């Protein structure tokens, strides 16, 4: 047997760094509606959406998939954030609400290439005991995210390709160095339908709404490919000028991708990151929920 077995085609593989927070109690949905940037009210039981939590200044603390299992149980699937730290920060805002916030250590995230077995679009499938399935398919690429009671096999290559797929579809994977730096509009999160400008108050809502209604969104995500690894936080340069900043990067084999925040209105120009020439690539659609 090989020392490091890999997942077979169609087999689930572990997604390192993914964790799950549960909101439970009579006020779970109301708490999520008051704190998070997307409108939770339209979600029915067994549905999910992209959502996030912002600072009062409208900067993204965490981006996650929010699953509504019932009106008293919601799950946050975090691809990057420190779940313990985020749960502790959220508890400071519970006050008198009837909601408990905890880590679902018994749910392990896994990815699988190919059409989901049952989930479709925003409708998830399964339950916590047997496992949950989410449709993570986008343009030209079918895949599903699984939350299972047992961990899946580790496959470094498959997990790296998963991260590439996230970036190709405009899902920024925020490392610790990029937390609380960017507004939802700067991360082009309207592409994922991940925030609302019409629901009631939530932290950062005034900044988000003002940017939207006054047409002040001047920067957004651009996807770049290079011949070598690209560091988060690196400067994107055109000629001698700094044009933007890398917010997320991923590597798999010979593929090296980066999402950077750049001006929305700019002339096409050759760009470099840390001295290497990079090429702009189109973002794929279809991951909105």
UniProtKB/TrEMBL annotation:
<dbReference type="InterPro" id="IPR027266">
    <property type="entry name" value="TrmE/GcvT-like"/>
</dbReference>
<dbReference type="InterPro" id="IPR017703">
    <property type="entry name" value="YgfZ/GCV_T_CS"/>
</dbReference>
<protein>
    <submittedName>
        <fullName>Folate-binding protein</fullName>
    </submittedName>
</protein>
<dbReference type="InterPro" id="IPR045179">
    <property type="entry name" value="YgfZ/GcvT"/>
</dbReference>
<keyword id="KW-0809">Transit peptide</keyword>
């Amino acid at each position: 047997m090989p020392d490091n077995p890999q997942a077979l085609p169609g087999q689930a593989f572990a997604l390192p760094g993914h964790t799950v927070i549960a909101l439970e109690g009579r006020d779970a949905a109301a708490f999520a509606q008051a704190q998070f940037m997307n409108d939770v009210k339209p979600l029915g039981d067994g549905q999910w959406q992209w959502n996030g939590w912002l600072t009062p200044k409208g900067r993204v603390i965490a981006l996650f998939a929010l699953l509504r299992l019932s009106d008293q149980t919601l799950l946050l699937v975090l691809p990057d954030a420190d779940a313990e730290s985020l749960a502790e920060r959220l508890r400071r805002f519970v006050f008198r609400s009837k909601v408990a916030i905890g880590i679902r250590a018994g749910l392990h995230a896994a990815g699988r290439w190919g059409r989901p077995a049952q989930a479709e679009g925003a409708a998830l499938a399964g339950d916590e005991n047997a496992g949950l399935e989410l449709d993570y398919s986008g343009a030209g690429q079918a895949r599903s995210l699984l939350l299972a009671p047992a961990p899946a096999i580790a496959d470094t290559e498959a997990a790296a390709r998963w991260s590439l797929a996230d970036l190709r579809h405009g899902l920024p994977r925020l490392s610790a160095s990029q937390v609380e730096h960017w507004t939802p509009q700067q991360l082009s999160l309207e592409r994922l339908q991940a925030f609302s400008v019409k629901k009631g108050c939530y932290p950062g809502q005034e900044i988000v709404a003002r940017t939207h209604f006054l047409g002040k969104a001047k920067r957004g995500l651009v996807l770049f490919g290079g011949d070598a690894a690209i560091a988060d936080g690196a400067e994107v340069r055109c000629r001698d000028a700094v044009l933007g900043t890398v917010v997320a990067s991923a590597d798999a084999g010979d593929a090296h991708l980066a999402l950077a925040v750049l001006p929305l209105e700019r002339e096409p120009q050759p760009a470099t990151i840390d001295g290497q020439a990079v090429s702009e690539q189109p973002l794929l659609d279809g991951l909105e929920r």
